[in-house]
Amino acid sequence: MKTEIVISNLSKNYGEKQALSDVSIHIETGMFGLLGRNGAGKTTLMRIIATTLNKSSGSVTVCGYDISKAKEIRKLVGYLPQEFSMYPNMTVYEAMDYLGVLSELPHKMRQEKIPVLLKSVNLDDCRKVRVKALSGGMKRRLGIAQTILHDPQILIVDEPTAGLDPEERVRFRELLSEIAENRIVILSTHIVEDIEKTCENIAVLDKGIIIFNGLLSAFIGTETSLEDAYMKKMGGLG
Questions:
Q1: DSSP state of 91
Q2: CA-to-CA distance for 18 and 16, rounded, in angstroms?
Q3: For residue 226, which phi and psi values (nearest 5 degrees)?
Q4: Helices 136-147 + 92-102 axis angle, to 10
Q5: CB count in 10 Å sphere of residue 176
Q6: What's the CA gap between 230 and 236, in Å, rounded?
Q7: Cross-strand pairs, 221
Q8: Per-residue confidence of the chain (238 residues) as pLDDT tens digits?
Q9: Residue 8 pairs with which residues in a beta bridge?
Q10: Which listed residue, 131, 138, 186, 231, has the most CB atoms within 10 A of its CB?
Q11: Is the dihedral of CA 149, 150, 155, 159 positive or negative?
Q12: What distance in Å separates the CA atoms of residue 142 and residue 159, rounded to the nearest whole number?
């Protein structure tokens, strides 16, 4: 089974409003950046890939499965939305263990995997801390840990560093890059720096339309940075 996402002529309408129009992208293993302003259609696209939202037209395949095969795809995909909640009164370990139960992971496997995952997101010293006592950055890292608990081939993270301080943003980007060594990680954000520091392949979405899809270096071109190239492009689009 090849780890890839193939999106062809994908469109999504909410009544008369078109959120996505004729989107075509091919995503393979590694970090993939989806860049766009708030309201560009990024979350709609991520939710369709994660099978939490139906498409209007076009086709999407995830590791060879058509998007209609939601049960099979959800075993392969971990999705961390911008707004997510965990069980605030549980400890970090209890929350992870409960989510492992919901994912039907055997007790022995949970015992083995959870400490390793908490260490990988630098939360091993917080296993007895209640979720509600964690900082924003810690909660995001816990979100990543629970998202990869069932070892998905594809990880989708929507605006993961919004609201984090600069140090936490750097730590979070490094974590995502490590995770992407053997799986697809889609980073959807409007924060240009997060894309520039982590992704070689990107797509730029504006008003539901893909205006660029390819290498980061090709998008930057002769500009001095991704931010300069992005602002010039967005300014040109009005």
A1: B
A2: 6
A3: -65, -40
A4: 30
A5: 21
A6: 10
A7: none
A8: 789 999 999 999 998 899 999 999 999 999 999 999 888 999 999 999 999 999 999 999 999 999 999 999 998 999 988 777 778 899 999 999 998 898 888 999 999 999 998 988 889 999 999 999 998 888 888 888 888 888 899 999 988 887 778 888 888 888 888 888 889 999 999 889 999 999 999 999 999 999 999 999 999 998 888 989 888 888 766 5
A9: 59
A10: 186
A11: negative
A12: 15
If phi > 0 it is left, if psi is from -120 to 50 it is alpha, else beta; for residue 165 that is beta
Contact present, 93 and 119 (Cβ < 8 Å)? no
**Which two tokens mark 202?**
């990107």
Contact 164, 137 (CB under 8 A): yes
Residues 6+ apart with CB under 8 A from 218: none
Place of tokens 């099978």: 51
Tokens of 61: 């395949």
> And the tokens for 82?
């911008």
| Structural contact between residues 48 and 60, judged by C-beta atoms closer than 8 angstroms | yes
Residue matched to tokens 């600069």? 166
β-sheet bridge partners, residue 130: 91
Q: Which two tokens stand for residue 87?
A: 């069980």
- Long-range contacts of range 161-169, CB-CB < 8 Å, 24 or more positions apart? 161/189, 161/191, 161/194, 162/82, 162/189, 162/191, 163/136, 164/136, 164/137, 164/140, 165/137, 168/135, 168/136, 168/137, 168/140, 169/193, 169/194
Token pair 């917080």 in the structure block, residue: 126
Residue linked to tokens 């605030």: 88
